Amino acid sequence: MSEIELYEPLYRVSISIIECGYEEFARLIAERHANETLYSWNEAFMLESGTDGYQFHVCGDEQGGGEKFYVWVAEVDDYNIAHELHHLAHDILFTRGIVYCSQSEEAFAYLTGRLHEMFRPEYQKQREQKREPKAE
Questions:
Q1: HSE on the CB side for 40, CA within 13 Å?
Q2: Local confidence pLDDT in tens for the 136 residues of the chain
């Protein structure tokens, strides 16, 4: 399992991007949030197997700030991460009351790009650390 933690200050969003198998991910979320409701698009949400990625959040003190957002992918590749970060940007802005339309699409594009910009160097650093031989 690998996990990358990000914080996006403009929208006050904590994000965990996790790469692992579904069963391991489901156990992790159950341990971290046993008595909390999971949400996607402000609707209660339940994890189900049969997919290779998810995006959802757990509320903090209130919706619209302080939530913990999760992106899970079974395997990081360009398609999966772009797909889930797109969903993530839309869910974040949805919880802030921003509806996708021609007047707001730049905010969605900006946030999607920003999420990629934040994720990519952290992922590269993590991959490089895994490749480095351990000193004995």
A1: 11
A2: 999 999 999 998 999 999 999 999 999 999 999 888 999 888 888 999 999 999 999 986 555 667 899 999 999 999 999 999 999 999 999 989 999 999 999 999 999 999 999 999 999 999 888 887 666 6
